[in-house]
Amino acid sequence: MHPYTIDTGIRKTILWVIFIVSIILSSFLTYWFEGSITSARSWLQQFEWIRQIVDICDGFGVTTNFIGVPFLYVAIYYFFDNVLWRTKWFKKILNVPDLRGHWEGTLTSNTYQKTINMEMDVKQTWSKISFVSTFPKSKSESNVASMFIERDGIVKVGFGFINHSRELPHQYDGYNILEMDSDTHLFGRYFNNRDNNNVGNSGGNIGTFDLDKQN
Question: What pTM, to 2 d.p., does this model score?
Answer without folding.
Answer: 0.80
